[in-house]
Amino acid sequence: MADILIQGTTIIEDKRRESGRIWSVTGAAWTGSNPASNALTFNNANGEMTATSDDENPVCSVNLPNGSIINNVVVYGDAAAAAGVTWSLVRIDHSGGSETLASASVNTEDTSISNEIVNNDAYAYLIVFGANQFDTSDTIYGARIRYE
User: Fold this and answer.
1) Secondary structure of the chain in the HEC alphabet?
2) Is residue 25 part of a domain?
3) Which terminal Cβ of the chain has fewer Cβ within 10 Å, N or C?
4) CATH code of 45's domain
């Protein structure tokens, strides 16, 4: 995209080039590791997900265009979730193997992405929480991935 010419003399760069593309999702898009337990509640009015019991492992599917380059990832949640809850962006190959690409505490952005080029032919992508870390009243508001 070309720069924008203002008043014939001032050039302002297109901000889309600076920020890249953004994928975002609300907390209401997560599912539990054991959905039959009804251990997660969803508020569709504000898009949040809250645990109603301890030791939950929410997961969210991530769908980015093939060939995208992931720049950073963050999961947003309340203070209870931010205190000791770790999320991970993982890629899963079609034979069941997995690899962590990014990981951080809730409300902390990870910019050190490993294997950052999305390959939808060979992998599927998920955001998951550490085993049994998500407890009663922990709330997730959503997640954001910046990519090129």
Assistant:
1) CCCEEECCCEEECCHHHHHCEEEEEEHHHCECCCHHHCCEEEECCCCEEEECCCCECCEEEECCCCCCEEEEEEEEECHHHHCCCEEEEEEEECCCCEEEEEEEECCCCECCCCCCECCCCCEEEEEEECCCCECCCCEEEEEEEEEC
2) yes
3) N
4) 2.60.120.260
Is residue 107, in this structure, part of any structural domain at all?
Answer: yes
Whether 7 is in a domain gets the answer no
Could you give the CA distance from residue 60 to residue 31 in angstroms, rounded to a whole number? Answer: 6
pTM of the model: 0.82
What type of residue sits at position 134? F
Q: To which residue do tokens 């599927």 refer? A: 124
Count of structural domains within the chain: 1
Place of tokens 């929410």: 58
